[in-house]
Sequence to fold (144 residues):
Amino acid sequence: MKKIICEDKSQLPQVAENIIETCKDLPVWVFMGDMGAGKTTLIKAIARAFGVGDLVSSPSFSIVNEYENQQDEIFYHFDFYRVEEQEEVLEIGIDEYFYSGRHCWLEWAEKIPDYLPEEFYLISIEVTGNETREMSIKKIHDGS
Fold:
């Protein structure tokens, strides 16, 4: 497991680059943390690092947002916070997204445990101070 300390928002570009380098071998990244821990803020920084010029926001109501960078790479950002029954994600064709080979960034994935891919990176964000966050990155294989 890798740990990254972010002392304030000015460090987010470096943190994003570090996460991209650490997680480059898998396209699905799950972001976990309490409400307000900074999941969406971190995903915005990662999107910027990939050259996404689109407005990056939490897809709370649509479940998924699609972004594109200048190299025509597609990125998917999911927010499962409002999912009440995990089977709801079947309606949007969740497997097609997860196995597309494109980057998929997931918030509140704990709401859909049965539909997560066998391999992904788990990026846990812990609030350790007013602006300080500690991120733990762990590669998950076969749900363990």
